[in-house]
Amino acid sequence: RKCHYDLLLDVGAHQGQFSVMAHHIRPRVAIVAYEPQSAATDKFRAVLNRARNVTLHQVALGDADGDAEINISRRSDSSSLLATSEDLPKLFKNTEHHSRERVRVARLDSFPEHWKHAERAFLKIDVQGLELQVLQGATEALKHCAYVYVECSHVELYKGQALFEDVKAFLEQRGFHVSKRLNEDVISGKLIQADYLFERKSGE
Predict the structure, then answer these.
(1) Contact call for residues 126 and 149 (beta carbons, < 8 A)
(2) Cα 106 from Cα 162, distance rounded (Å)
(3) Mind listing the pLDDT tens digit for each residue in 155-180?
């Protein structure tokens, strides 16, 4: 069953991988993307510079407005505002700390002009441990969303991160339920992380 949405909010867009796929599938649906890393945003713009309905904002989303240091990993898509746990480099190659970059942080709710016109937005979140903070900063935006697609961990890969059950409880309180689990990372028989598609329950 296809997801019917009228706006894609790509949080943690990195170099545009998800946005490119979504734009290819539904070129008429507008995309608003958020990515804090300067090197990644340069590549995103190079790839999607001809797409008229794709907008990229160089900012990290969270539960407060301000700025912070992002810990950049050797594998840049594993970078996070949180420090890595001891388990991350043991489980995934090239995820050791490489450098830091000062970045702007904001709540999604601070940008109502990005989503207030939508009725069935698709909110994608891939933020390396900050999933719950992004959602806590998006309580108004969530009212305009029909879907939330979020990468969740089942073990602590980043220090202090919320795990899947925390994210699930937060979204269930706001009328969403788990529809699918995809892209599972299973190591030595243990589920480490996966992508979850949450759908808003009908009538809520």
Answers:
(1) no
(2) 19
(3) 999 999 999 999 999 999 999 999 99
